[in-house]
Amino acid sequence: MTYIQELEQTLKDLPVSERENIMNSYRNYFTDGKLSDETAREKLGEPSALAKKLRTEFNLNEEHAESDDEKKQSLFRRDGWLFWLMVLISAPVWFPLLITAYVLILILPFMAWVIAIAFILASAFVVIAGAVVCPQNIWAGLFYIGIGLALLGVPIIASSYASWLSLKASDWAKALTHTLYRLIRKVAKR
Known about the structure:
- By secondary structure, the chain is an all-alpha fold.
- It has helices at about 5-10, 15-35, 35-45, 45-65, 70-75, 80-135, 140-150, 155-190.
- The chain starts with a helix and ends with a helix.
């Protein structure tokens, strides 16, 4: 097999159009330079090594390449004035929504802790009220004390819920931040 045939064989995984462009370039290079297979191996190395280098270059070019037609068609590319104008005009909508999402995520654990503390205070107040009422009416006093002690169960449940929410809120805020970051990078790559 000739050098060109070996090179073409090792580049089978590239798209047909890219492979044809590469092969035409190297055929012209061989024809213009009147290179033999031995000379090509000396100058260019083995076909597999050259193919590996070409594949790497193709992958780098593919990541950064955008055709001129696509650039002309895209009015909303990141360096276009229309894109930034739309971002600025829509800011009164998306910015308050973003702030609201973060505030809601962060306020949930705070509210759970507030509820837990409120029930602790309420149960303390009811137990004290029961102790005050007890000398006048023993059954009413014991009723209030029992209600106060029962109310202490709510903060126990609410505190575990508040702890869970505190952990989850940081995860949710982190997930929201990562989602926004990916969205911004996706828009910026256009």
